[in-house]
Structure formats: C-alpha cells, structure tokens
Design brief:
Four Helix Bundle (Hemerythrin (Met), subunit A), 12 helices
Length: 241
C-alpha cells in the first residue's frame, strides 16, 4: 500500500468535511446575523477559518517552491477589532472565498512531495512538526472547532455534537493516523463539555490525549474545559500517558 497517497486521501477527506460544514452553515445563515466578539456570527467565523486555511496554502506553495513561508501572528478571538474586520466581508464574498481557498488547500496538499509532508527536517521552520499534520490543524481541527463553538453559543448543542460525532466517524472510516484522529476526538470532547455532558467529555478527552499526548497542553488552558478544571476533574485525564 502506498502510505503517502493513503495519507493524502485521508487528509483531503477531513479538509472536504470541514469545508462542506462551513458551506452548510453559511447556507443557513443570514447576512445580518447578530454577533459579538464573545458570540461570533456564522459569516465572520467562516471568514476567519478561511483566512487560516489561506495561510496554510501559502505555506504549502512556499514549500513547493523551495522557499520559507512568511510568519503569521496569532489573533485574539475576543478582540472587538478583530471581530469587526471579519464582519466587514459580505456573505457572498465569504462563501466564494471559502470554496476557492478550500479547493486550493486540497490541490496544494496533493502537489506537496511525500518527503515534505512526512519529513519535518526538510523544513526547519516546522520545528520538528510534520507538515501533513499542520494541514490537518489549519484545515480541519481549527475550523471544525470553531463551528462547534458557534452551535453551542447559539443554543444548538445538538448540532455541535452531531457534527463532531460525524467528524470522528469520518476520521475512523478514513483510517487517519492517530495524531489526527485525536483532534476529532478533542473537538467532540469540547462539544460534550460545553453541552454539560461532562462524563462523556472526560472519557473522549482521555482518548484524545492517549492518541496524541501533545493535546494535553491544549486541554490545560482550553476554556471549554473550565468547569471540569474548576471541579478538579481533569487531573486524572491530564496525567494520562
């Protein structure tokens, strides 16, 4: 079996899932849906997700051209200024850009060499991380996480749980590597925690950390687990190896 090609197919499946969920959300949203920096509307969320994907496209293009990609600064998701910048984009423009950037990310994923995807030593700026997993983070984990947050914040916990459960089933069906499957688990744990299903959240988070121990650092500070943290219930999970 050709592992690099199998990996590409699996990653592309995750990218396509996230993009389709964004398009569904936009199709069921209004142009002037109210929102704030504490409770994002659908349009700015998808615009933000798309910007992160576009940055990953730039990284893959740079790798393909033998160049070092630019540095991208982190953003403050609670900033009124940041939120307003995404709200300035009309829904049709957001929808079109979402589609085009998602397609570009998939195309670049297919064009990136096997060695660049799998061997982080080829690109020192990766700091030891594998490029394919960075694509999953920017193209699947990050956007699906924000979509789940949207549904929870807008009183649609059932939609959040359904989406994250489907994402995990897809990851399992595609047989993605454990490091990526863990991210689908993590998003589902977040949705369960925010929906008040704390026992399920702990169980699924434990699975996520076992599959990808680096996620422990995220769980330590993630606001989705604030209640569990304050109750002292995360200790056993965060100490798992």
């Amino acid at each position: 079996m050709n592992y690099p090609q199998q990996l590409r197919t699996a990653v592309v499946g995750l990218l396509a899932f996230a993009a389709s969920e964004e398009e569904v959300l936009l199709a069921n949203s209004q142009e002037e849906e109210p929102g704030t920096a504490d409770k994002w509307a659908a349009r700015p969320i998808v615009a933000h997700n798309t910007e992160f994907k576009r940055q990953q496209v730039q990284r893959l293009e740079a790798v393909r051209n033998g160049e070092t990609p630019p540095l991208f600064s982190e953003i403050d998701h609670t900033s009124d200024t940041v939120y307003a910048s995404y709200c300035a984009r009309g829904i049709e423009a957001v929808r079109e850009t979402c589609h085009l950037v998602a397609r570009s990310l998939i195309e670049e994923m297919m064009l990136t060499s096997d060695d660049d995807l799998l061997d982080p030593s080829r690109n020192s700026w990766l700091s030891g991380r594998q490029l394919w997993l960075q694509v999953v983070v920017r193209g699947f984990w990050h956007p699906a996480g924000h979509l789940g947050e949207y549904y929870i914040a807008h009183g649609r916990a059932g939609s959040a749980l359904d989406m994250q459960e489907r994402a995990l089933r897809l990851a399992e069906l595609l047989a993605v590597p454990d490091l990526a499957r863990a991210m689908a688990c993590y998003n589902l744990a977040c949705a369960n925690a925010r929906a008040g299903m704390e026992a399920d959240a702990l169980s699924i988070l434990d699975m996520a950390i076992r599959l990808n121990p680096e996620l422990r650092a995220n769980a330590v500070r993630d606001a989705d687990f604030a209640a569990l943290r304050s109750q002292g219930r995360l200790g056993g999970v965060l100490g798992a190896s």
